[in-house]
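tl;dr need the bound structure. longer version: we got a ligand (EPZ) that a collaborator sent over and nobodys looked at where it sits. i said id run it. heres the input, straight from their email, havent touched it
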Amino acid sequence: MDKFVIKGGNPLIGKVTISGSKNSALPILAATLLTPEECIIHRVPDLSDIRYMLEILKFLGAQVHYEKGTVRVKNKIINWIAPYDLVRKMRASICILGPLIARCGKARVSLPGGCVIGDRPIDLHISGLQKLGANIDIIKGDVVAQGGQLRGTTINLRGPYGSTVLGTDNVMMAACRSEGTTIIEGAACEPEVEDLAKFLVSMGAKISGIGSQRLIIEGIKELHGSEYTIITDRIEAGTFAVGAAMTKGDLFLEQAPVNHMTSVLEKLRDCGVTIQVEEKGLRVSRSGPLKAFEIETSSYPGFPTDMQAQFCAMATIACGKSKVVENIFPNRFMHISELKRLGANIELLKNEVHIYGIERLSGAPVMASDLRASAALVLAGLVADNTTEVHRVYHIDRGYEKIDEKLLAVGAMIKRVYSKT
Ligand code: EPZ
């Protein structure tokens, strides 16, 4: 398993080009199952999660060509079963369920199981699809769905922790080819859900209320192929912005989706970070002290849970006591014990942490556990004394395109050490 060896102390200075959004690309690639015609998707980031999704589409019968960020895919479905050994590699593959049922009238997709950030139930996905008329059972760890003709209805997708992103995606995709009108109340409004809705409309779907918590979908019989460019990644951009803030750097984030980053940019400004919105991106720099802060994660447009770990890393060197409350995945704190190995002073309570900023972290070997926790550890290594080794960086390769190369190019002392094991 590869590791990163990072020598702390250099400010990040220069230009980073932000890649296409992983969390937009995955459901959009799944949505191509809704048509037998060719779809061409641009700005698809080269990530292991994307490669897994393309493997699944190929397993189902698709012809797939992926080159220089563009995916050409033609779904002649010959199989409606997605097996455990493919699905277990990437839980987001559950978003093939809705389009498969809508296209084939049936589907068998392995239950994604949990992950280190917490239990990942899909009860809202299942109940939403059942309300559209799909008969769904759980058999030997698989979701087994018999669809027949789906029929539109009103569905509420709010759960105990707010709306569900991939649940909204699944139900919206199935509703596009249901008979009649579907109203989704409590729909997730994340930019990635909006991007999927716009892609579906480009395929001929009839969706109104895009970007709101109330989606109205007029089902149609067929969807056609489409050529589409994915939005850029607000979480990658936010991660580099935190890197500039922590290292007292000065980064230009080219193509950063500024309009999708309001809550994160507001919080950075509150911490004393300079944010300048420019024509083709965003300039982030810091010269003065890094102030402590308080954040509470919530559904969009609130503060994103996917930026929580990165802000915890920043809090470890801020002046004063910061407070981070995690309301979406209450156990999403695997990064805390590793940050403490670097000398951070953190108190973990139920679903919140109190972080008392210190002068400097000190380098040590740490273990990545999930995608955003790994990013937090890399950020901490950039400012820690001496050397930090981040092990199991396959976690970070799932969601950040060439992050070591991008960091190297702006002055970070980071090296990927390949290993055969
Ligand atoms: C998406 O996951 C993202 N993944 C996650 O990003 C992100 O953290 C999450 O949304 C929240 O914004 C992708 O888009 C591929 P949810 P998703 O369903 O859709 C509960 C990353 O780092 N819930 O919105 O799986 C659930 O337990 C990843 O890029 C139910 O109770 O998340 C959670 O507490 C990590 N029942 C909350 O809702 C359900 O049926 C939000 O989950 C579904 C979810």
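gonna send this back to them w/ a short note. The two ends are 5 Å apart (CA to CA).
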